[in-house]
């Protein structure tokens, strides 16, 4: 009988000290890490697109300058 009570109380004690929630915390941490990685990749992609746009603007400006120089 005493052993049965101990087995019934063990989960309650583990929840009380936080050991039982460790698995859920680890799963949440992995999801947060994945979200952070995706955000980082998104920022890198956004930076690359900005670089390409800047390069296109620079190239267009050079072409305009060359056209103005040729026209004079």
What does this structure look like?
The chain has 72 residues and is mainly alpha-helical. Helices cover 92% and strands 0% of the residues. The chain is rod-shaped. The model has no long low-confidence stretch (mean pLDDT 80).
How would the global form be characterised?
rod-shaped
Number of DSSP strands? 0
Poorly predicted tracts of residues: none
Helix amount? over 70%
Strand content: under 5%
Please report the number of helical segments.
2
List the secondary-structure elements in sequence, H or E. Answer: HH
Q: Would you tell me the structural class of the helices and strands?
A: mainly alpha
Measured distance between first and last alpha carbons: 104 Å
Using only C-alpha atoms, the radius of gyration works out to 30 Å
What can be said about the biggest beta sheet? Answer: none
Please tell me the overall pLDDT: 80
Short description:
This protein has 72 residues and is mainly alpha-helical. 92% of the residues lie in helices and 0% in strands.
Set out the fold topology.
Elements: H1 2-17, H2 22-71
């Amino acid at each position: 009988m005493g052993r049965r009570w101990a087995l019934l109380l063990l989960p309650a004690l583990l929840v009380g000290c936080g050991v039982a929630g460790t698995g859920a915390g680890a799963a949440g941490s992995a999801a947060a890490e994945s979200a952070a990685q995706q955000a980082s990749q998104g920022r890198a992609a956004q930076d690359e697109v900005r670089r390409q746009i800047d390069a296109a603007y620079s190239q267009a400006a050079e072409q305009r300058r060359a056209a103005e120089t040729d026209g004079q």
